[in-house]
Amino acid sequence: MPQDRDDAFAWIDAQRERRDRAGLVRRLSPRPADSPLLDLASNDYLGLARHPEVTAVAAAAAHRWGAGSTGSRLVTGSTELHTTLERELAEFCGFEAALVFSSGYAANLAAVSALSGRDALVVSDADNHASLIDGCRLSRAEIAVVPHADPDAVGKALDADEADEAHAGEARAGEARRRALVVSDAVFSVDGDAAPLAALAAVARPYGAALVVDEAHGLGVLGEGGRGAVHGAGLAGAPDVVVTATLSKSLGSQGGAVLGPARVIEHLVNSARTFIFDTGLNPAAVGAALASLRLLRREPERAARVRTVAMGLYGRLTAAGLAAVRPDASVVSVRAPSPEQAVRWAADCRAAGLMVGCFRPPSVPDGVSRLRLTARGDLTEEQVEAAVDVIVRTAPTA
């Protein structure tokens, strides 16, 4: 029996105590409008969240269309801005169509759950983002979690499923083989390493499996002019490839999108619960994302600059003896000895004028705590050097 029948949430106190002992307590840290800190923690990879052109379009959109979208996309929540953003985003990334959601999280839930289902198989990378994992859980499909960035393991999971299907084929003669999805981040958010997308597609196709790729950390950074890792792998527009993306990182706004074949997008409009039952993305965010996208098209060198900054951070940190992971995009991961030391390291950086991310269990799949640095394309060489100086100077001893 419960220790205290009059306290329905007594279990919360026990969990809080366990977090305290493990050094895993998280706290909100509201930032001022004009922070004096050098920012290597946000996901504003292209430095566009405060770009005057972007904020001006966002303000104009709010004045014209209102502060909110007023309803779901299928009722009153779709504006001409939404349609324009979807068209230009699909064209930029090389797909037939796109659909805008209220967040990248909602886009991932929609893509995975609506394209699979109870009778499907989803093969998911062990290091996938929580939104993809939750999409798998909501799908009610059979889930095969495979080792990180391992196309051979994906092939074995699909092969085993095909063998099982063949064995059960006599009992289900005439029925189509169940559908399958291979799901992966394009760039993994913890260490910043890129998925082997071409190899994943090559493994999936012989089994008739679709490939769903989350471009949250690839759009605006990888591919020609920032068109994403899928575009860079030559998979953009393929009939068996679907991309999800967020508008809150490189595009400096908020919201998400799914891109793919037109029939896939039509299917999501009619079946994706996070689209049908959610309020549409607000006009200011749509306008800001559209302005950022147009700016990136006009200034494609911004994507290359992000990668240059990331490699500069990595080179300087490893030269100083720190355990950093070579970045494939904009995220630079620096290992810490323990969760407690990672928290202290981040706090010491902040006290020295530098804001960095701090990733600890359960957010990291391998249990290793890290500082997570995000390279921004608008950082100067002087700022990069100053950031490295602070990180090295405050680094904990092993």
Radius of gyration: 22 Å
Structural class: alpha/beta
- The mean pLDDT is 93
**Helical residue percent band:** 40-55%
* Structure annotation, total helices: 14
| Strand ordering within the main sheet | 2-8-7-6-5-3-4
Order of helices and strands: HEHHEHEHEHEHEHEEHHHHEEHEEH
Number of beta-strand segments: 12
First-to-last CA distance: 45 Å
Q: Could you please describe the fold and organization of this structure?
A:
- This protein has 398 residues and is of the alpha/beta class.
- Helix content is 42%, strand content 15%.
- The protein is built from 14 helices and twelve strands.
- It has helices at 10-22, 52-65, 80-93, 104-114, 130-139, 151-167, 197-204, 229-232, 262-271, 273-276, 283-298, 301-319, 339-351, 381-394, and strands at residues 38-40, 97-101, 121-125, 142-146, 180-185, 210-214, 241-246, 256-260, 324-325, 331-335, 354-359, 370-374.
- The strands form two sheets. Strands 2-8-7-6-5-3-4 form a seven-stranded mixed sheet, with helices on both faces.
- Strand 6 (210-214), helix 8 (229-232) and strand 7 form a beta-alpha-beta unit.
- Helix 3 runs parallel beside helix 11 (283-298) and helix 12 (301-319) runs parallel beside helix 14.
- The longest helix is centred in the last third of the chain and has 19 residues, at 301-319.
- The radius of gyration is 22 Å and the shape is globular.
- Residues 170-174 have low confidence and may be disordered.
